[in-house]
């Protein structure tokens, strides 16, 4: 879109972009994981059970059992520069900073844990950003991810006497820039394999089935992403949902169930990609790449490849730059 002649561009203002992802513990130990899970699983956008019923279960059972198990899982994927999710989001912010130059400040935050949305919003404001784009890095909109990230930012803004002006990044599940970046990334990863997969799974994080019935667009947006990616690649993808949590019915089919069923159907060579995660994390590196592989091979599979997320690859940064620039339109000053 170009601005009409009689509608001049706004004067120069310092612009800020805050990349937001889910959150992760500060360290791969049970104490840190407990602190992180307590915050995450107390979010009413994530667990929609009334607190009077849920908090005793969370405090009495889950926070006494899960942290140790999860800390072990985090330990298997932890990097020298920290939790993969945080390390990769930091790299994405640094690459975008280079891509935008000095007129746009780029920072990053986590919805749960550190660096917090409150601290980073305050830092952008203190650095003189009068206009800030909140960019939750979830291609598919979900109340439990996109909405709660924005809620937290607006909660922080509610405490500011002089608020910056705010925009939010829309979901980009069907954006040609995103589908194109996925196609480039997946095809490059497939070309580097030493086997030819008979099937490719597109595994998305699951959600309770009830959220679909209540009108959350997440499930439909996941399916649309997979359809468009499949069309772009000229082959069908098997859509599955992973990381089931709790006793309620979750979206199906479940990634683990499908993986284990494939060898029995004559499919012994698979590749799996997780297009809903903008950065690799516990749920991809441990649940898919380690446990998924183990269960597929144990079920009789012969070859398994986990294809990485977009992360800070050149195609990912080029895509994010396009999506972000579009939202900054009218805020930017023509060169
Ligand atoms: C990408 C979208 C995500 C949706 C939708 C989502 C929903 C959701 N998740 C849980 C419970 C857990 N998720 C955990 C980790 C986790 N989840 C996402 C993304 C989505 N979650 C990411 C990126 C991560 C990885 C974090 C990391 O540190 O690498 C965990 C913690 C790990 C564990 O103990 O297994 C839990 C718990 C629910 C209940 C939910 C929707 C209702
Ligand atoms: Fe999750
Ligand atoms: Fe998990």
From TrEMBL:
Belongs to the ferrochelatase family. Catalyzes the ferrous insertion into protoporphyrin IX. It is found in: Cytoplasm. This is Ferrochelatase. Its EC number is 4.98.1.1. PANTHER family: FERROCHELATASE, FERROCHELATASE, MITOCHONDRIAL. Pfam families: Ferrochelatase. The keyword Metal-binding applies. Pathway: Porphyrin-containing compound metabolism; protoheme biosynthesis; protoheme from protoporphyrin-IX: step 1/1. Its main location: cytoplasm. Keywords: Cytoplasm, Heme biosynthesis, Iron, Lyase, Metal-binding, Porphyrin biosynthesis. InterPro entries: Ferrochelatase, Ferrochelatase_AS, Ferrochelatase_C, Ferrochelatase_N. PROSITE patterns: FERROCHELATASE. It comes from the Bacteria. It catalyses: Fe-coproporphyrin III + 2 H(+) = coproporphyrin III + Fe(2+); heme b + 2 H(+) = protoporphyrin IX + Fe(2+). Fe(2+) binds at residues 205, 283.
């Amino acid at each position: 879109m170009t601005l009409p002649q009689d509608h001049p561009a706004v004067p120069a203002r310092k612009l800020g972009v805050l990349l937001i992802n889910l959150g992760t513990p500060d360290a791969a130990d049970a104490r840190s994981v407990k602190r992180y899970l307590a915050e995450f699983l107390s979010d009413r956008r994530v667990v929609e059970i009334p607190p009077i019923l849920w908090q005793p279960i969370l405090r009495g059972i889950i926070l006494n059992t899960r942290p140790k198990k999860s800390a072990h899982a985090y330990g298997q994927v932890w990097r020298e520069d920290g939790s993969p999710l945080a390390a990769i989001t930091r790299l994405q912010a640094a690459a975008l900073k280079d891509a935008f130059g000095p007129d746009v400040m780029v920072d990053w935050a986590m919805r749960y844990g550190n660096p917090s949305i409150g601290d980073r919003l305050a830092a952008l404001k203190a650095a003189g950003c009068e206009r800030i784009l909140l960019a939750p890095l979830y291609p598919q909109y979900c109340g439990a991810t996109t909405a709660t990230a924005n809620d937290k930012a607006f909660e922080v803004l509610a405490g500011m006497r002089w608020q910056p002006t705010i925009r939010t990044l829309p979901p980009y599940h069907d954006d040609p820039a995103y589908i194109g970046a996925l196609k480039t990334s997946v095809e490059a990863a497939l070309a580097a394999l030493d086997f030819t997969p008979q099937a490719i799974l597109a595994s998305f994080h699951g959600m309770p089935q009830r959220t679909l019935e209540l009108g959350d667009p997440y499930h439909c947006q996941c399916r649309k992403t997979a359809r468009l990616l499949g069309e772009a690649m000229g082959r069908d993808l098997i859509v599955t949902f992973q990381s089931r949590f709790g006793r309620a019915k979750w979206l199906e089919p479940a990634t683990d169930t499908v993986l284990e069923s494939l060898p029995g159907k004559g499919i012994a060579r698979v590749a799996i990609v997780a297009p809903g995660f903008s950065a690799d994390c516990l749920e991809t590196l441990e649940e898919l790449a380690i446990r998924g592989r183990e269960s597929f091979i144990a079920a009789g599979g012969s070859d398994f490849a986990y294809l990485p997320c977009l992360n800070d690859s050149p195609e990912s940064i080029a895509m994010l730059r396009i999506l972000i620039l579009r939202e900054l339109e009218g805020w930017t000053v023509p060169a």
